[in-house]
Amino acid sequence: MSIDLRFAKYCLPSRLSLHVAEQGPEDGRAVLMLHGYSDSWVSFSRILPLLPADWHVIVPDQRGHGESDRPMDGYAPAELARDAIQLMDAIGIAEATLVGHSMGSFIARTVAAQAPKRVERLVLIGSAVTACNPITQDLLREVDALDDPVGEDFVRMFQASTIHRPVPAAFFERVVAESLKAPARVWKAALFGLLAADPEPDLARIRCPALILGGDRDGVFSQEEQEHLATRIPGAIVKISPEIGHDPQWEAPDDVALDLIAFLQSPNTP
Q: Is 1 a domain residue?
């Protein structure tokens, strides 16, 4: 299936320039996708061709990642959530469904809690109540030792550790190449900001319909952590897929696309 994927740079009021991939008509149903730690818009590239042609899908490289600007600060989830809201303003979108993967899920949750009128629905992929657990603490120690240039072996090992079901080799190489664009200070600031944040108070404030997608072989957040998240968001639906790791949109893009379509077409009740 061919799509009208296009790229642009949007300058936000903070003078931050974000590189954005878009597809679909500008007046279509808005879906804003926020990628995970060290990733870029490429993280969602396997599902983009599978989504309805009349959706306006917006996939930015978040601050410090991909081809976007890399300022010295602003990497806490609350600050990245502000970037997302300002991007919606710059594009002219009043309300959108937010889809967040891993780090992006914490950012999407923050937007939904703090700007509820801007979020129609919420989809969290590979998430948990808190990002802080023994796995991410171990990663923090490794990231804290990084210097520039960040080593390809480290990036390759990190990304491979998040996958359970094999993904196409060309796609994985592209993921690694995108992660290599982030300097060591962004790897550090984004992870430090994520683990230092306390996302729990925001969860009870989420009032839009919420879908949690994950895998039972997630090597970052266990199935128990994912299911616990569903109990903390009023009315949330959870779907944990068998033999899937931390990246369902990489490992099973057809299934994730079908889940997104079904969720967005379901009755708008919390």
A: no
Backbone phi, psi, residue 172, to 5°: -60, -40
CB 219 within 8 A of CB 246: yes
Query: Tell me: the pLDDT tens digits for 147-159?
Result: 999 999 999 999 9
- 41 and 52 in contact (C-beta within 8 Å)? no
Q: Is residue 240 part of a domain?
A: yes
Question: Is residue 270 assigned to a domain?
Answer: no
Residue whose C-alpha is closest to residue 62's, from 8, 22, 17, 124: 17
pTM above 0.85, yes or no: yes
Whole-angstrom CA distances from 155 to 72, 84, 143, 169, 207 are: 21, 26, 10, 15, 37
pLDDT of residue 200: 83
Of the candidates 206, 268, 259, 241, the residue with the CA atom closest to the CA atom of residue 50: 259
The CATH number of whichever domain residue 145 belongs to comes to: 3.40.50.1820
Count of domains in the chain? 1
Of the candidates 85, 97, 101, the one whose C-alpha atom is nearest the C-alpha of residue 38 is 101
Specify the amino acid at residue 175: V
Reported as a single tens digit per residue, the pLDDT across 175-226 is 999 999 999 999 999 999 999 998 888 898 999 999 999 999 999 999 999 9
Residue 94 lies inside a defined structural domain of this protein: yes
- Residue span of the structural domain in which 15 resides: 6-265
